[in-house]
Every structure is written in structure tokens, then in C-alpha cells.
Amino acid sequence: MKKIESKHLLGLEKISKKDIETIIDVGFTFREVLERPIKKVPVLNGKNIVNLFFENSTRTKISFELAEKRLSADVTNFSASSSSVQKGETLKDTIQNIHVMKMDCVVMRHPVPGSCLQLTNYVDVPIVNAGDGTHEHPTQALLDMMSIKERFGKIEGLNIGIVGDILHSRVALSNIYGLIKMGANVKVCAPPHLLQRGIEKLGVSVCYDVDDLIDWADAINVLRIQRERMGIGLIPSTREYRTFFGITNERLARHKKELVIMHPGPINRGVEIDSEVADSDQAIILDQVLNGVAVRMSVLYLLLGSKDFE
Ligand code: CP
């Protein structure tokens, strides 16, 4: 059985290139399982996985739950809005109460950066980060890289652009860590106030003109403006943002090149991306969603599984 060195999946900053390669490779095997008439393997039979979601989610929550069920694990879902967190219970007490009920793995989304790392102090089972504030979203970056590999047959040497609200984006950070490790060239593009100072130190190049990014890139990952993390707001209007940074139909038509368009979702149609682009053949957005189930199956199997499967 294939193995990874990591005990948890907290982010892609510290994980080895070899572990990323293994997760993606095994992800392709599970992608094949998802094409079978019976899309289920018994590899996590008897394991209990709890999904702790302290922040809203559509794709990640459903994707993890589906991945767990496809692996035959028992699944417990926890939503902060209907829990005793509303009565003032802390993360430590919440998780220790859940853990004493004999959980084998915790998947957590939380608005506080570093909260998944903090969780490793409270329980001794694998922790999977499903997005911790503005820090990391490792399974999103893994499914993005799997989708790039599926489309191009490789990741190394490709030019991958990331455009949008880089400053608030855990997806951007995990993609940067992962793609650089895998040998891609990464360029980020955003209004200057939506970029971290010194981001070049992570090994990326920076541009402020989305047309330059389109000229350069083999694929572009388009991010939404995260108004919920901006306080009073950092963009004057969505119309102005679309004019200067939007992946619009007219803009792509001017460039006349084959460019793969990605988006982690949720999409704000007509702001960072036009509907026609999101729904076009050059967009692989729904392939990303399907690969998300496969790559999450891979992560959970590699962290918890103990036997091979066919
Ligand atoms: N891509 C992503 O994390 O989407 P959700 O917030 O819907 O999970």
C-alpha cells in the first residue's frame, strides 16, 4: 500500500513533494473508482470521521462527506450554527467531547488561521484542514493540481496564473506552496492592495495587468473577491473590478489563445468571471469539483487506510 509521511494534512507549506505526488496519483485511482457502477470501496470500514464546519461551505463539505462514504467510513457532521458553540463552548471542549466518542479523524473548516494546527494539541487522530481562515485550503490546491495534471499530463514547467483577491485567499496560498513544489511557474495578478507585501519571497512573480497574465499563462485560476473578509471593503465597485481584472468573454476573445480556466468556487458570475467563460469548453471548473471527491478520498485513505484496495 502507498504511504505518505504526513500524519495530518494541515497545509501544503510543510508537506513534501513526494507526499503531494502520492496524493495526486492515488487520487487518479479513486477517480477511476468514481466512474464504476458501484462507486464504493471498503477501505475505511469501521472508521469514524467527523466533519467540523465552523464556516459555510457547499463544495468542500459535500465533497468530504461523499469521499468518506465512498470509502465506507462512518460519517458524523457537526455544524457550529446548530451546536453548543452558540452557548459559548470552546474549540478545545468541543473537540475533546467529540473525540471521547471515539473518532478516528477530524476534518475541520474554521475561520481562524492556524486552528487546525491548534487542534493537533487536543486530540491524537489525523486532522485534515478543510480551510482555516485566510491561511490554507490544502485539499482545494490538491484537486486544482490534479485537474491541471489531468488536462496537461504534467504540472512541472507549466505557467499557472492566479488572479483575484490573493490577500484573503487560502486557495491562493495553498496553490502557491503546492505548485512551486511541483515545479510550475506561478504568477499572481491583483490590485496592489489585494496582494500580500513580499509575496515574491514565496517564489511567485507578480503582475497588475490581467492581459499580461493571460498572454503568459497556460492556465488561470480565477478567485472571487472575498467581501466577507474585507471589513469596509477594498474595492470601490464590482463593475470597476470586472473592467480591470475580470476574465470576460471580450477579453479572452481578444487574446485568441487556448487557455484553461479554473475557479475554486463559489463563483460570482459577472464579477471576476463572465458566465459565458465559466460555462465554456475552456473552463474545467466542474472537473475540479469531481476531482475534489477523488483527491479527498486519497487523502483520507492515505492518512487512515491500512490495506490495499482494487
Ligand atoms: N472551494 C470551496 O472551498 O468551496 P466551498 O466554500 O463551497 O466549500
Description:
The chain has 310 residues and is α/β, with parallel strands linked by helices. 37% of the residues lie in helices and 14% in strands. It has 2 domains: 17-136 and 291-304, Aspartate/ornithine carbamoyltransferase (Rossmann fold, 3-Layer(aba) Sandwich); 138-288, 3-Layer(aba) Sandwich (Rossmann fold). It contains 11 helices and 9 strands. The strands form 2 sheets. A 5-stranded parallel beta sheet has the order 7-6-5-8-9, sandwiched between helices. The protein is globular, with a radius of gyration of 19 Å. The structure holds phosphoric acid mono(formamide)ester. Phosphoric acid mono(formamide)ester binds at residues 57-60, 131, 137, 140, 264-266.
CATH topology of the largest domain: Rossmann fold
Most strands sheet: 5 strands, parallel
Write down the overall geometry.
Answer: globular
Q: What is the overall pLDDT average?
A: 94
Task: For the largest sheet, list the strands in their spatial order.
Answer: 7-6-5-8-9
SSE series:
HEHEHEHEHEHEEHEHHEHH
Q: Segments where pLDDT lies below 50 for 5+ residues?
A: none
Give the number of helices.
11
* Total DSSP E strands: 9
Radius of gyration: 19 Å
List the ligand species: phosphoric acid mono(formamide)ester
CATH architecture of the largest domain: 3-Layer(aba) Sandwich
Number of domains: 2
Write down the oligomeric state: single chain
Beta-strand share of residues: 5-15%
Name given to the CATH homologous superfamily of the largest domain: Aspartate/ornithine carbamoyltransferase
| Structure class | alpha/beta
Question: How helix-rich are the residues, as a percent range?
Answer: 25-40%
Measure the end-to-end span: 11 Å
CATH hierarchy, class of the largest domain: Alpha Beta
